[in-house]
Write the structure tokens for this entry.
Amino acid sequence: MSAYRVESHGRIKHHQPVSFTFDGETVEGREGDTVASALLANGKHLMGRSFKYHRPRGAIAAGSEEPNALIGTTRSEGRFEPNTRATVQEIYPGLKTESQNSYPSLKYDIGAINDRLYMLFSAGFYYKTFMWPRSFWDKVYEPFIRRAAGLGVSPTVEDPDHYASRYLHCDILIVGAGPAGIAAALAAGKSGAKVLLADEGAEMGGSVLSEPGVNIDGCSAWNWLEARLDELRGMENVTLMTRTTAIGYYHQNMVGLCQKLTDHLTTLPEGAPRERLWRIRANQVILTQGALEKPLVFHENDRPGVMLAGSAQTYLNRYGVLVGRRPVVVTSHDSAWYAAFDLADAGAEVQAIVDLRDKVQSELSDEATKRGIRVLTSHTVTGTSGRLRIKSIRINPLRGSKAGRAETVNCDALLMSGGWTPSLHLFSHTKGTLRWEDDTKAYLPDQKAEACHIAGAGRGLWGIGKALTDGGEAGVAAATAAGFTTIAEAYPVENDREGTGISLRELPTDRSPGKAKAFIDFQNDVTAKDIRLAVSEGMHSIEHVKRYTTNGMATDQGKMSNMNGLNIAADALGKPQTEVGLTTFRPPYTPTTFGAFAGYHKGSHFEVTRKTPIDDWAEENGAAFEPVALWRRAWYFPKPGEDLHAAVARECRATRESLGIFDASTLGKIEVSGPDAVEFMNRMYTNPWTKLGVSRCRYGLLLGEDGYILDDGVIGRLSDDKFHVTTTTGGAARVLNMMEDYLQTEWPDLKVWLTSTTEQWATIALNGPNARNLLEPFVEGQDMSDEAFPHMSVSQCTVAGFPARLFRISFTGELGFEVNVPARYGRALWENLWEAGQQYDVCPYGTETMHVLRAEKGFIIVGQDTDGTVTPDDAGMSWAVGKKKTDFVGMRSLSRPDIAAPGRKQLVGLLTRDSKTVLDEGAQIVADPKQPKPMKMLGHVTSSYWSETLGRSVALAVVQGGRDRMGDSLYVPMPGKDVEVEVTGTVFYDPENARLKL
Amino acid sequence: MADAIEKVSPLHALAEPGRFGDTSGEPGVGLSERLCDSLVQVQAWPDSISALKKAVKSVTGASIKPGNAVATKGDVVLMSTGPGRWLVEDETDDLEVRLRKAIGADIGAVTALTHARTVVSISGERCEWVLASGIALDFSADAFPVGTAKLSHHHEIGLTIHRTGDQAFDLYVVTSMVRSFWGWIARASAEVGYTVS
């Protein structure tokens, strides 16, 4: 047995030894230990090095608020995690742990030189230090800072674990299973409401676990706890969840819970996720998260062995560990006295209780005297000694606010308490407001923004008795609000320890305040001096103080530092705390893995991928793919040895010379039906639709209310009251939503229904001189001659025996058809056409070739050749705007002065003087590349390709006053050269459209 | 020709029969896919809802139920998907034609969606658990009784969900996304073990 293990105490299994390693050394703990409690049981307080100064640090707390004892854990092969809190990680055989932020070893760390140079690292040092010379910014400072930044090391292999998620709806969610939470669950559970009680610990009970001497309802605290938890387990409507942290509280009573499922297990169950992220939607939420103990701020308060008194009490009563054999207690609150008594009763020789207050209750001093503990009221602590663990402290009598002559007292632990801060992080996530209460010296919940209740220490009620009563009442209130009926039980409590105290800033000292290393934020190495420096340098908002010093910005979210930082900043500003305000608590409450947030969505399931019915064929035939919106589209079909350029050139040639086949299924399709369909179309689109005959098509242009082009597509009239509308691939959902919005809010009088039919139809485009030759034998019910079925026609017929909507349209400038068949027939039709098309050397082509072919014809792609600021006239498409129309979406905006003003950017063509040069898309355009910088930019290149058909490059661009610059020379600055271009029209190929009429 | 390929599903390469995930006990759920023979959307004008209901009954023999209650009769399923809007499913191949004849433009609109949806069925003791792993609905029997249907989504995948039994749901999934959806539901089911049939 180690010198610090107390067999008579604790809830761990003393007869079940468990071995794990820390920095390669085998450590023996007991089943139920955390890494921290096991190390402390072996007398090891040194657990890590601090972030900035590399100061030796040990555990200061016993829970998730721990800022110091951050370790790396290897749970099994590939399962490494940095920055795990040693106070939370449960031990099991085979667990490997390691300290962080030290080299070559934890005891002898080169980085500790920073502590000697601490004057260089004061608040905001990086804002002042790395300013000059400027040439150092990229090559010296940033690489240096990046190397120095961060804590712990990232895993080097892919996380082998998987993560799960779940939604849950309940009547009442209770966060925190301390006495208040349990009493609330009992009251709410008896009402029949669906109750969920969650706690971040491995076992429920909260402060009851650390106060075994209290009697509740006539029995010992632990027996009461076990009986009550059994009672809750027996209620079918109550769910208990341990190792489950409420990480965030969101609108409409949604609370995120992260449940750790396997981090404490040696053997992982088959298929079990490591963590599960719960999204709880609760009718009522009860927050019973208790309170966090506040450290005292004095010189060298961060030495290993300096610990919160309540945490020392927890280590003793839950884990059977004395954190020191000869501790000293320093406090401004009664609660630390009780910790001292518990440790003394367990065999520790408490050297002294140092209380900053003038007087304490006589019962406390009597109890101390009875145990032979020296009591020093109106005293302070002004320093500590010990390289890797505390050896002694300096105790000084207080003379008013000044420290008198110091006395050195040897010790092996220093237990401190500066009072308690209600844990209101989750409450603050909801934008609930806080108010300062002087009686309890704490911020308490004030105005609520959600249907929540707060009970126990969370609203400043100290002691188990008050927590039980308050929790029960909260349970009743929540159940009543959720529509249930219940009553709260009374739980008489004996030997309760409520306590009072005072709240202090940094303690009085007998040394120069400028040299005191009195830490506030242990994880970010922020001292009281840093706070005062920030204020003196002009940071008068607490939010600025926070960011300038980084106080409260570490992974512990300032759980222990925020109140001390606020107190000191208020003093430096000469304002009361209430005027200084609080910084904002943000989710997550404790660090949460990315895996928990990602859940099932990793690898190929990271994002939804839409696939067409012909996608499999494309994959089987070697297509390269590209994402377009959520779709996976065939980009090009390379043959062996071909790159993108070669494949696209071949696909373009084949389509222009004979026949290309293209999967256009991703185009958005909306069926517009109803007696008022034509009126609806007239109002939505710029084009007129009334006179469009049945079985005819028209190119439709859709504007936003601002008059700028929003979407486009070919629209076929299937009957008097039905249109088959196509949209861009990426714009389908947006267009449907816009149409629905207008229909439901602006024109509810119109009898029109809109239905997305994108999924219903597979669309195959055939383009090229042989398109009709291939298709005609497959078509029944439609004469395919040019006379009977001219360009811009639509027919409902059959193709290869499949019911089809056959369009004669073209996005390539060649004779073209688009065959729509019900989606499940898509691949069969494609294969039929493919087989029959071999006689015409049919060539499958992808989106890249489609882009080239349409650019050669000057057809725009919305979102590429337009950017949300292009009007129909800018795009040279005034022909698509009905001149006699009295209204359509965006019409009024087209008459705004700046829309009609001369000099707007207009879509034009660009031909490079050197025909082999292909411009960069997005490149800027200038009139004179030799003009002084900054140059006047006239526009930019929107589309640019190598045209295999024309044997030269072609480009589209938006250029100021572009149509007045026809034939002009402009310049496109590109890397290494300025490219001269000629401004031309946008149609480079077959301007007479002769090829459409074959 | 059309009949010969009718049953080719977008899931044909994914939904292979077998036992998957946790195999330590009884499978928690069973998954299967189903292609509708006919799935048609009917939509009434505000003043023609009664007429449309009569027309649907004349064609299918089933009466549309109020709210989100699903009407079933033989192989016919009628589900509300919004005000004045229902999905009609049966096992014929001419449902759309018959509905179109009965529902003129004065009564409403008829749109075939047979190929636009793929049905993923889930059944078994843990089906509520699996569905709640990624769909933000309350799947408890009180909130989602047998014989009702709800609209929801998983990420960006639109879903119409019909509770067909105490431990059984049919999910009508947008076809182009059904492969992604299957990938998710298979992962979510792995923890409890699942079969594919």
User: Anything to note?
Assistant: Residues 464-481 of chain A form the longest helix (18 residues). Chain A touches chain B through 52 residues (CB under 8 Å).
